[in-house]
């Protein structure tokens, strides 16, 4: 028994020595309870923390005597705050709440060990909440230039970044800020503007916050009086002229680019009035032209204000929009073979020359394309029915009297049609009467003579024939049949 006791005692001594060696080797602290009292702390004297989502402060305490940590601020909490027992190494984690105030704050951690007179004080300083308030300049800067001001209130260092040169002459481009966030007034010297209205941005930045606002300076002003923000002028499809009120701070003139001069004219009637003149829009979709209003004097940097002239077509559609397709590039309109899918003019024709220009036509079955020139009043009419491999019919009826021309077209001939022209004119062989002619692709197909001149015999009851182009109802249509209209043009004879 004595020998066994001795062996057990020896093993215990070896184990204790081994543990002591490992612990001392890892932390370089002699934590044996025997010997003088000792505490070792690897914390720095001070730490700084962010106002929002601050990182934890972490340090170690190794001691052979009990210890405590006291925080003088509720927002700063060490864990653990005392030793569980002596002779152990503890990791201390200090957590902090967000600082919602406008000033920084400080917490002190006091570390005391039992039997040791010296204390360790760790100071933690937490930054204030980022606070930046900018009151921008929000008025229109004068064309002649002026000094403008805005204010900055910040509890952090800040800087100003201008986006462009005309707002770069700033009396103070940076500042240190102050904990009370007192307002600071900033002045910008804006030079005169000889060109068009211009804009620039001012950006105020701190480390974590950014505020940007726009400064607008007036320049050369040429605008519509009734709608200053709009650079679009809309006119009707059959309009021949109209005026627009203009407000300007310089004398101005108007130019029409060459590509629009065939249908669009513009002139300055006075310093405040612009006249727009257009021809009838013979396309089936809205057409857009441009005019440019410029200063009479050359102004550096100002190339004029471009206004869009949107002219609606002189026609309207009857039927679902799903049954037609507008080519945005050309303005051509593809019209599907559906009963009642009509194109109707907003004007009536009398004597003159009416031309239908087709980009494409595809009629292969029983589809019938019907040109119906019908009056606003009365019953006089001019009609044309086009069918493939069947009789086509060109006629005058009603108040005109009667005239008819029948002819036939193969499918290939019908689908090759690109122009269809009606001529309503005085009959050279019958005084006081009309002659109505039909031409297809430049070839005369029908010549109906000795027709009553309804425009002279009863003008009040016969204001003219309205263009009505449609697929004839009551027939079967071949799926996929269509025609594509480029333009419908009417040139009156008088």
From TrEMBL:
Gene3D superfamilies this protein is in?
A: Immunoglobulins
Keyword Ion transport in annotation? no
Annotated BACON domain ranges read: 65-127, 170-218, 258-298
User: Can the keyword Nuclease be found in this entry's annotation?
Assistant: no
Q: Which Pfam families match?
A: BACON
Which residues, if any, are the signal sequence? 1-22
Q: Which UniProt keywords apply?
A: Signal
Which protein is depicted?
BACON domain-containing protein
Q: What is the lineage of its organism?
A: Bacteria, Pseudomonadati, Bacteroidota, Bacteroidia, Bacteroidales
């Amino acid at each position: 028994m004595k020998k066994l006791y001795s062996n057990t005692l020896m093993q215990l001594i070896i184990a204790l020595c081994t543990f002591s060696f490992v612990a001392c080797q890892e932390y370089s602290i002699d934590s044996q309870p025997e010997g003088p009292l000792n505490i070792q702390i690897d914390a720095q004297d001070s730490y700084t923390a962010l106002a929002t989502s601050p990182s934890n402060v972490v340090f170690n305490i190794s001691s052979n005597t009990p210890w405590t940590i006291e925080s003088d601020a509720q927002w700063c909490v060490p864990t653990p705050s005392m030793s569980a027992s002596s002779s152990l190494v503890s990791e201390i984690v200090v957590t902090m709440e967000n600082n919602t105030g406008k000033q920084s704050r400080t917490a002190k951690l006091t570390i005391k060990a039992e039997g040791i007179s010296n204390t360790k004080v760790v100071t933690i300083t937490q930054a204030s909440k980022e606070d930046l308030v900018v009151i921008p300049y929000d008025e229109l800067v004068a064309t002649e230039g002026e000094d403008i001001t805005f204010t900055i209130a910040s509890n952090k260092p800040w800087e100003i970044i201008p986006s462009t040169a005309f707002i770069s002459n700033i009396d103070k481009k940076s500042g240190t800020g102050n904990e009370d966030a007192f307002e600071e007034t900033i002045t910008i010297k804006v030079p005169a503007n000889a060109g068009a209205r211009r804009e620039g941005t001012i950006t105020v930045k701190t480390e974590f916050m950014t505020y940007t606002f726009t400064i607008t300076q007036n320049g050369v002003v040429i605008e519509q009086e009734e709608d200053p923000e709009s650079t679009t002028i809309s006119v009707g499809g059959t309009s021949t002229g109209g005026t627009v009120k203009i407000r300007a701070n310089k004398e101005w003139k108007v130019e029409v680019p060459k590509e629009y001069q065939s249908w669009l004219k513009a002139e300055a009637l006075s310093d405040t009035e612009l006249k727009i003149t257009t021809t009838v829009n013979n396309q089936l979709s809205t057409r857009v032209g441009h005019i440019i209003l410029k200063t009479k004097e050359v102004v550096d940097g100002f190339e004029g204000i471009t206004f869009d002239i949107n002219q609606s077509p002189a026609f309207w559609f009857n039927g679902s929009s799903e049954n037609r397709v507008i080519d945005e590039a050309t303005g051509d309109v593809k019209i599907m073979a559906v009963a009642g899918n009509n194109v109707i003019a907003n004007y009536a024709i009398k004597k003159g020359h009416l031309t239908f220009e087709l980009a494409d036509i595809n009629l292969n079955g029983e589809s019938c394309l019907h040109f119906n020139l019908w009056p606003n009043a009365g019953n006089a009419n001019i009609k044309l029915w086009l069918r493939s491999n069947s009789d086509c019919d060109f006629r005058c009826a009603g108040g005109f009297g009667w005239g008819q021309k029948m002819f036939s077209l193969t499918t290939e001939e019908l689908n090759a049609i690109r122009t269809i022209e009606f001529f309503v004119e005085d009959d050279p062989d019958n005084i006081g009467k009309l002659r109505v002619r039909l031409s297809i692709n430049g070839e005369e197909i029908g010549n109906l003579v000795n027709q009553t001149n309804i425009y002279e015999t009863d003008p009040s009851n016969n204001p003219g024939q309205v263009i009505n182009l449609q697929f004839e109802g009551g027939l079967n249509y071949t799926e996929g049949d269509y025609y594509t209209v480029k333009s419908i043009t009417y040139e009156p004879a008088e």
